[in-house]
Amino acid sequence: MAREKGGFWVGLAASVFYPLGRLTGRRRYQGREHLPDTGGGALLVGNHVSYLDPVHTALFVHTAGRVPRFLAKDSLWKVPVLGRILRGSGQIPVYRDTADAQQSLAAGTRALADGKIVIIYPEGTITRDPDGWPMHSRTGVARMALASDVPVVPLIHWGTREVYDHYRKRFRPLPRTDMVVRAGDPVDLSAYRGRPLDSGLLREVTDLIMSRVRDLLAEVREEAAPTEFYRRSPERETG
């Protein structure tokens, strides 16, 4: 299997993430065949249930021979050492609710055009849905998807919240849990391409993509998915 070259900083991150991935559970990665070979871009759109998700997303992509590029909140770049790793490995800061927010989407779109694997969690934070289903999501994912001629691949995580539940402040690595990461068939957006990018279209495409994510999660959980996306209370929308 040909492997995309990541350089020193990606190698350094891998040296931390692989042991951490083994520590936090049994890896059950499925659907890596939906990622394009080296040189082909793809937008991976994931649900978000735990701060462990990026660890297992990164390993899912890296074990497929590709280098993950995350859209992540800009405050992480201010953390000593971590910020240097993020910059060195080509991650993309997101400046939410600022004049620079569009720059983040533009940077992600350029990375896709350059044949990179870009990961986005459109909910913007860990889901607050009590049952762990995806929330009502931000429309930046639709803007990137429609601006790029690359596969838009739904991706789910399940099991990570059992190990680390941020809202309950609980870390429980034992007994060991299956860390499921599964990618599904790319979302067909051909009916939406070439249309004016107004708010209605962006909302419709975002909900379509996240519906595919939710359906994939329902398959893994072997449960019926809710018909509506959970909405946070207004005072928490910036969380």
UniProtKB/TrEMBL annotation:
Keywords: Acyltransferase, Transferase. One of its GO terms (molecular function) is acyltransferase activity. The keyword Chloroplast does not apply. SMART domains: PlsC. Residues 42-160 form the Phospholipid/glycerol acyltransferase domain. The keyword ATP-binding does not apply. It holds the Pfam family Acyltransferase. This is 1-acyl-sn-glycerol-3-phosphate acyltransferase.
